[in-house]
Queue: 4 jobs
Job 1
Amino acid sequence: MVDMSRPTRRRVLASGAAVSAAAIAGCIGEDGEEDDNGEEPADIGEYQYDREEPGDEETASGSSIEFLQPAERDEDFDPVVSFDSYSMQVANLVFDGLYEWDDEMELEPKIADGMPEEEDDGETFIFEIQDGIEFHNGDEVTASDVAHSFTAPVEEETENAATYAMIESAEPIDDYSLEVNLEHPYGPFTLVTMAVNVVPEEVRTEDREDFNTDPIGSGPFQFTDFQAGEYVELERWDDYWDEPQPYVEEIRFEDAPDDANRVAQVLAGDADVIDTVPATEWDEVDGADDVRIHGSRSPSYMYLAFNCNEGETTDPDVRRAVGHSFSMQEFVNEHLGPAAAPLVSPVPEITNDEGDWEFPVDEWEEMMPEYDPEQAEQLLEDAGVSDDWEPRIIAPEGGPREALAERIGSRLTEIGYGADVQGMSFATLVDTYTTGNADDYEMYLLGWTGGPDPDAYFYNLFHESQEEVGQGHFYEGQGEFHDNILEARESADQDERRELYIDVTEEILEYMPVLPAYSEHNTMAAREEVMDLHAHPAVSYNPRIVSDYQNTWVDE
């Protein structure tokens, strides 16, 4: 399934794919904390709604939905190999997981019969699965299928391998139980890795290529039609084993990467639901009488990274000066409004809250540089930075992150310096930001999507083993910085891991190899007749359609 816990370079691309592609121009002027109208932006919580129940279940059960996605799919629907969010939006309706995330990002049993029995200090897990669950072809789901789902990503060297690489073995004990052994304790295992989508081993291995585009799962929907690069059509599986049964009878997914076109279609009633409400179109969509925005906080993390390998930004005082040169709060208010929230650490708000980490966020907020152009200018002068310094800032072209790069460049110009801001395609960007060459960049803006465990952010974005893979800042760290990240990764003790992550975060905020920017929320816009729709924190779970907390239908 989509790797929520350990993204690779390609995951950086996926993170950007969900961001508005419309250009947003930066503004020059006084930095504060309010939007252009002098008001605080609305909270994303205002776009979450109470449960809705149909008056006529028989009529609701004939519902159909057309869902527009904001990026092209990779067209990999086999969760063993699928690695983009939009293919997984389809696959997550076709397959059930051993465990699945609820709307608060907590794992709950699905195919599993309760939580696993843990042995050997977190290196062995015994899973029981429910009997009588069937795949769409009538085959029963067995422990062998679950074991295959755990081990296939590594054995086949897929892009999902890192999620399961710590698994030494997964062996059935009988048809309804299996034992999973880890090479070492792995902190995120019970928070993330257990959410594996279960595939039928025999059918899948008979013809993996065919299975990838005509999959068979045990989920509430099954494939009926697929045209590569155009659409996927699913229909309700009326023999679905779990409750509740979905009201939606058919759902059609289409690519619609052009923001304005996607919004125009839902406003005109030519589509039922669209994924991602662009910041540039937010007010128009929010003001429409017959369309509702649905939103949820997400585990996305956008950031400004500094080249710690070459150039003026190898000096932490220069990095801090850049942080003082502009206001992240004002930028988010003006350019993203309710669609995002500023961050004060590499751990998104939802990861901290729903994971019960209880990090000292208030203390971290005080460590973040406030907008203070005089201090920024003084720090640069004391660091011996010449007046003709114009650092190159690179960012994905045409979206909020390029606008943020332009805002930083404008503020540096105001205090007597400048910047060479370059928006790039993702393909060019990933070949550039990992070089470590100051001529290529001294700062870059990117994003990452993790999950309920901080390891997703700290290991991939800061551990030295990931240089030139998921990071290009080349931060050597002070003392035990990298050792602490690895130790937290290989510990099953959350209290121990929490303390290690606090130390790591405080070093990041003090030496600032990366400046946290914002978390962009998951949003959808739907016609008002689409009922009981709820945005999930994980983009790959949208639209959820049916779960314990929702059963979407269209009130014709």
Note: The chain has 19 helices and 23 strands.
Job 2
Amino acid sequence: MKTGYFRSFLTFKILFLMAFFSHQLLFGKIKLPDLVSDKMVLQRDVELKIWGWADQGENITIRFRNETYNTSPDKNGKWSVQLKPQKAGGPFVMEINEITIRDILVGDVWLASGQSNMETPIARLTDRFPEINVSDFNKIRYFKVPTQNNVESVQENIAPGGKWFTGTASEVMNWTAFAYFYALEAYEHTKIPQGMLVSSLGGSAIQSWVSQEHLKDFPNDLIDKQALSALNSSKLDKGRNLWNQKDFNDADWQKAKVPGKWKDNGIQAKGTVWFRKNFELPASMDGKFARLYLGVMVDSDSVFVNGKFVGATSYTYPPRKYDIPGGILKQGKNTIAIQLTSNFGNGEFVADKPYKIVGDGVVVDLTGEWKYNIGRDMSKDEDYKSKLKNLRNTPSGLYNGMIYPIRDYKVRGAIWYQGESNAGQSENYAGLLKNLIENWREVFQWEQMPFLLVQLPNFMEKTNDPNVPSGWAGIREAQFKTSQTVPYTAMSVNYDLGEWNDIHPLNKKDMAKRLFLAARKLVYGEKLVSSGPVFKSMKVENSTVILSFDNVGKGLKSRNGALKHFAIAGSDKKFVWAEAKIKGNTVVVSSNEIKNPVAVRYAWSNNPEEANLENAEGLLASPFRTDDW
């Protein structure tokens, strides 16, 4: 009875596996990007593109919301269809031939990018915001683009492993913090599904998110394609899977003596050198087992006899003793090939060691003349690397691997939270950010694509000297100038939300709230005050400076007492802390130490947490300076 049950179960299991793999093969005719999958959010009110890859000759049929679309792959196997604009709602189902995609929402999709503060895991915030643990928001969704850094060329698909998650408690721990709070803020205000498409990487510089074409204004960030190609080629062993073959023609190779040192044989290389030697065997050894002795070699080796691998050693010291299995050796001519690697160029067949083949009473002496050729010479790498010093910043690599592949996924706007890694080169940041925005608008084919900028918060210890240089202030200024000069951009100010001793501040909730306030005006067209006072102009009267502002809302005010963090300087360019007072919609700045002022700075430091100029709506003024020193 038990035996019959087991046989029935085994038969059922085999049939099930056959059906499963047959089903998988059908699915295998069509490949979709991971973005096009269960729980995705599609952008409302715009034409949508659904794309993928398929075998030649495959007909693709898409059914979505009572509409049918048909297409077929091009010569490269890629296909796409345009879906008509969709109203917000869901969940919906999409069928693509045999594939069914479920739980699709239509709403607003936000492309969120940058470095580690866009990457901060939501799990870090649960103590501060315990409501995360009971999150119950199915209408907000999250997709993290897997890391893919490719400096050589743009990629057609993102790296595998991406997946959409909901904002419910069982899945919310897969989110990053800023994305969660922004999606929640947007959903609670609009009551429309929100999708966060997060393409970011901790520690990344802005240059890595910009194409090479849009880095032409910055020669130091352009990649020497010839040097890169040469470097990649130099990493390849020219002899791999070729010079080990028995019948390979090595007539033009150089000669070397074994045993012996590379340098004594005139071999000037760091890397891999191939050695070959022919030897004769009598009929008695045809197909027989034998033992191969190759003394000691420096450093690592792989050994082939008649094209067959027989052994390898990964470091210098062990004696090389390899078995040659039966069936490899032949009567007459045989060939041994050795791939010997020494990364420091001190390769060697150590003297006074045995180099021979022993088998069935036959001993073949392998010392004497060999042929050699250089497979890879790493010493040339340094020349190429000297021309590629900027590769440490991986210019364009993340654009190629994490922005270009998602260019067809329609979004409502972009969010950019980055700058920490560029704080030491703030003088170029405004130009780089402008070019990034132009680049992304071009690749997403949307000239008016909204960009929301998160200005860097306060960080590091406070200083009592207003003359201390500040890379972070320089980045904030670049972000501010971009928001004022590049159309369809907006920025939130956050220098009161950071933590002096943590570059990853936890209050992402208020940061997201402020940024969405900017989105309400820029993206949704609401009439409201969405930012703090914006410096407009200065006028010197006697020993005082009068500063004028835009975006004053219902009026200027100070937060928590007298105005702080204003500094003033004369022609000697030495700043001192100043007294500042609000007068109508202006701020009057002065100091007893400066009789003839020429410049003013506000909140110009790494950590200007105490700076407190705001409008009546409670929004802080962005840091600024009137000089360009």
Note: The first strand starts at residue 30 and ends at 31.
Job 3
Amino acid sequence: MTKRLYHGAAYYPELWDEEVIEQDIKLMKEAGINVVRMGEFAWSSIEKEEGHIDVSFFVEIINRLYHHGIETIFCTPTATPPIWLSYQHPERMYVDNEGRVMGHGSRQHVCTNNPYFREKASIITDQLATQLGNLDGVIGWQIDNEFKCHVGECMCNTCKTLWHQWLEHRYQTIEQLNNAWGTHIWSQYYHSFEQIPQPGATPFLHNSSLQTMYQLFSYEKIAEFSDEQASIIRKHSTAPITHNGGTFFHVNNERLYESLDFASFDTYADYKNYSAYLFNCDLWRNFKSSRNYWVMETSTSYSASLESYAIPHPNDYLKAEAVASYALGGEGFCYWLWRQQRTGCEQPHGSVISAWGKPTIGFENVKKVEKARKEIEDSIITTTPMQAEIAITYSDNARAFMKTEPHQNLNYRNLIIDFYKNILQLGYHRDLIPEGATLKGYKVLFTPFIPYLSDEYLAKAEAFAKNGGIWIVGPLTGGRTEHHTIHTNAALGKLDELAGVETLYSYPFDGTGSVGEFKGVKAPLSLWSSLFHPIDAKVMGTLTEGISIGMAFITERNIGNGKIVMLGSFPTGDEGELLLKTIINHYANEQGVTVKAQVTEGTIIVPRQGNGYLLWVIVNMDGKGGKVQLPYNGTNVLTEKTVEKGEHFINGYDYQIVKFGQD
């Protein structure tokens, strides 16, 4: 349980003079900023010349901010190596999959696996932790900034050597790799690990195994870099450590956060796409479930660069974002950035204060966030989010598999958000959980869009079902091995046997006119889909139109005290949403899921548990206002007035907190 709620912004005092810094501190206090994040791009300011590290400026700034009630999360500045590290050293630079060597500038231009970079990164991190680690104002650390945001898998010579070592560790012998990858296809057989290429330019497509394994290799190497930085910091500081991640970046977030203390993310979701914002909150809450997460970056109004810009938020939307995040388990809500940058490639980006020191279009909305933070803080810090009864498994490894095999531009992130928003719209409290998470406390588990399911996951999910849960598997799940090849014992490998089915066909439904029916509801079906013959299962959904009429796309098998349900295809369009929601409601009702609310679309309920009482934090996210059905009489915490059970209205982008139970 958190002790306070933080409201902050990214701050770059190294870019401004003393007069501006004094003005910034005054304006921060006016805006209600109680924490800043800094240092992330300051390597050239701290170490202008190689070997001459001077941290005194930041020591003074941190102490001055703390004196004014503003705490600091300090960042290691390794995302922007200075010119002395990269100039005339192409061997240190990032190389893309077309063989292009990055030049100095922007950020992430150096390969994080390069040994010289690693050495220098370790030295500056050690110095920062030594000199800043015990300052009262430093409450946390952020490692680097948005790993693999602008770059994917590096193809430099350092990475090539590490790639071969990684493969040898994974496969032990070249024969085992050849067998696993099936390299006799197109004469891709290798005689040694050193012969295996990186997935650079080729006339056609790479072997799927090579393409996916290189992504997993890259995932592991960037996580190892994070581990190394965290280990250095812990020698000198007890403050918790994080990294500001995202689902767009080329990382395995579950692996990345293993060695970190709390999870945080950056988001610039359009206000119309609020479900993507809530998706992040529900996911990051579960990467480090022992601690509250942070929104480390979001825009006060709009994001922008020299080349692009986003639509500004409507007034009051920022307040709804903040309250929703705090309610869903967020401890900090921070902006990028405090003062608009007067130079560089992100000059047009939204901020709290303009480059010339005046409030921006977002400033008044920042003040509204601060008013809301103060108003809800006591309610939030004395309660915790309730245990959800519905979980959806999220997998960055699945994202790698789908990047290799996108068919017609399939995108894992978009698919799972589309799936998630149907559960959100039905009013269910829900968790997005990584593959390794416990399933304790859940009643219904969804596992969509994960091509490869590990033996560990299959065993865990089987046990979940046997103990009384309903496990709903698919679509696009289980059809690939760990090496990104096709099963040869059954279409979905072990999953066929567990589900009591024989998967007869897997083919793309788009363009075939396929329509499926479940519980009297019909809808078009889409994506690469699977059809089942029941062996020890019951048919629940069949095709009524298309080229496989009468065949099953939904089955269920009783196993122990629960069920395994196979969902072989993804319903599409408005009718598809109705069908998918019918499936969700059917199995949630069968399981007696009660942690939900009756709300109109665009409004969310976040249930939080206190000591002998229940809180509902109600937030309207679409600006249209909404209706909510209160199940009991309660008390409006903000007005201290009694509210009766039944239908209540909430205004656009507004929030309410209702307490049920003891006074």
Note: The longest helix spans residues 208-234.
Job 4
Amino acid sequence: MWRRTYLFLLLVRLWFALSPSYLHPDENFQGPEVIAGQIFSYPVRHTWEFTGENPIRSVFPLWPVYGLPMLLLRWLWIGNGNDGEIPPIAVFWTLRVLMFVLSFVLEDWAIHELVHSPRHRRVAVMLVASSYVTWTYQTHTFSNAIETLVVAWSLVLIQRIVEDTHQQSSLMASTVLGIIGVFGIFNRITFPAFLLIPGIRLIPHFLHRPSSFAVMALAGLITAFIAVALDTAFYLSEPVTLTDLFLRPIITPLNNLRYNILPENLAEHGLHPWYQHLLINIPQLLGPAAILLITKPHLSLRLYSAISGIFVLSIFQHQEARFLLPTVPLILSSVQLPRNRKAMQIWTVVWVIFNAALGILMGTYHQGGIVPGQVFMSNQPDATQAFWWKTYSPPVWLLNGKNEVLTTHDVMGMPGEKLLEQLADLATCDTPADRRKKEYLKEKQGTYLMAPASATWIDPYLPNKGLDGLRFREVWRYQQHLNLDDLDWGEDGVWNTLARVVGRRGLVAWRVTKSCDGGKQR
């Protein structure tokens, strides 16, 4: 029975991996978009992490995770005789499937390795496989999702090193640990926080077998040198020499640490109380499993790893729930289910409802129209201006070369009056073709507004059919889109806010025109 259930949960995971929800802009701008610009001719937009004087993001972990699959895909595309570039949406879905495979193979495999008891292992695997975090965050291209896998396999390697009595096997595990340890640090500087307590187990082993520590350190140093070389070559405008690597290296983890220890820098991203992770983010990720963490914990190296990670991350004042992704499989594999049958049934029902609700919300509806919206914009022959209002930043690399003629305006928080001013400046003149079905596509220029249907501020301007002012023609709508950043509990109240955001869900594209003297464009 449990095998059939596990197979069903794998299909659920795959279904969510192939759903176009958009959990956070970082899943594009800190990963695939950076490498896509290196391999393909897609237009890309580098965020501040990559453009500052002291860049804080490394491209080293991006190459094996995203670069190699893109290179393979490009090789297959050319090998099959195709001309031009691969459609970026094909690359997007390939990476989603890759993240599903990595989650399915590496995360679940690590749980099998870390949990020794067959009965407890079965429960742990099922809990991880049925978590909405596994369905959604782990199948998206987050550095946090990669960190989850690196933490889990670091624990596996530590366990193998400590328990293995064969010198050769121990040396191999130590070498791999040195490599992925450096990889983890360049991926996210928070990675060592999860190994503070588990790493203590290695001290007696290294004292007894110093050769294991030597090979781990050597592997780590070689990996770090390669990482610094790649980052330096990426960020310096001129060709890099060996002298550059020693005199002016770009060490992104060091820059990242320097940036994040300054409260004034973190204030730009939002400050949280020290208990944000413990009292808000953990329950948000675990739901009813958070109760088991308090009432029925199973003390293990995995739990100690999660505790050390939560403790260190709570020191920093900027605390997002996704920062704790590595703790989810560690905690879910370190709790015990209720033994009382009735309590077990109640807990199971609550667990299923919690994950089904959060899975549908985060895996299907959360900003779900942005990726389909970019695909729509890439296919509009007349589009030259696109305004994205009250949405996450759209990934421009999905425009499939349309950026040569299309300018994307990311105006998420712009006041409505200012938006209308900018639309009035860039809108094309209303012509007879604009009033006929699909005839507007033959125009040479066109201005579009992409905004959630829940943005009621713009409602009074939509019905305008007169001679003056802007005219909005709805040309596309994607229903599975929710904008959770547009909640206004204080002004609208709870019920009215939910009625607006949920009842009027969807992302809409309007083609915007204006009246001009004589019908001529300016």
Note: The longest helix spans residues 88-114.
